[in-house]
Specification:
By secondary structure, the chain is of the alpha+beta class. Helix content is about 40%, strand content about 15%. It has a four-stranded antiparallel sheet.
Length: about 230
């Protein structure tokens, strides 16, 4: 992928975030979009080598649209200033109640790469399933967090949006209570890219996401309880 061209395009888009500029520069966008599609295709192929569950994901469905949903946003800028993709089994970028973790990566106009995995703001049923799983499989959760590759790459789960108090029904003294209080369960890291070495991008993303696999595997084993119908 032409990283310098992408950086320049996204930087200019940030300064001219309006439909006329976007339409005038649509040929640039189309070329970069195709290059990003090829990158996503290659990332899925690499992930499939260690995670068969995502081996046959559709790269087009994994890519996020550049258009922003501005219906309820204060910022009415119509376009995102990043290229991003989320990869999950069955092409479910935003898992349903019975869903699970997602691999994610993005490139922005600052020449930065961000990647990670987990579940960002999952629905209530899924959040409760993960919290219960931390209690019922405390040892397995600890093992996933202590994985050397995961710790070296990501540190630990991000603590954005944590509850002030333990959720109802959970012991405040539980060993994992600080994780149980989370609303999102995601590991991520970001870095500046060397724009002169685009060939390093694919292995960097693939190897980085592979380091999150132990946590992804553990999260998938957390199941949402079926509610019996009358």
């Amino acid at each position: 992928m032409h990283l310098r061209d992408l950086k320049n395009y996204l930087t200019e888009l940030a300064d001219n975030n309006n439909r006329p500029w976007f339409i005038m520069n649509k040929p640039r966008y189309d070329i970069l979009r195709e290059e990003f599609l090829e990158l996503v295709t290659q990332v899925i192929a690499e992930l499939g080598k260690f995670d068969p569950a995502v081996k046959f994901c559709n790269p087009k469905k994994a890519m996020f649209r550049i258009n922003r949903d501005v219906r309820f946003a204060h910022d009415k800028s119509p376009y995102k200033t990043r290229f991003s993709a989320a990869i999950a089994p069955n092409d479910m970028r935003r898992p349903s109640k019975a869903g699970g973790p997602t691999y994610y990566f993005q490139l922005d106009g600052e020449g930065r790469l961000l990647f990670g995995a987990g579940e960002y703001m999952p629905p209530p049923e899924r959040t409760r399933a993960l919290r219960k799983h931390m209690v019922e499989d405390a040892a397995g959760f600890s093992k996933a967090l202590k994985n050397k590759a995961l710790k070296a790459r990501y540190g630990t789960i991000q603590d954005e949006g944590k509850l002030q108090r333990p959720p109802k029904g959970f012991d405040a003294d539980h060993e994992h209570i600080e994780f149980i209080k989370l609303k999102s369960f995601f590991v991520w890291t970001e870095m500046k890219l060397d724009l002169n070495k685009p060939d390093l991008l694919l292995p960097l993303i693939a190897n980085g996401l592979k380091d999150a696999y132990p946590l992804v595997t553990w999260m998938r084993s957390a199941k949402v309880e079926e509610v019996a119908e009358d």
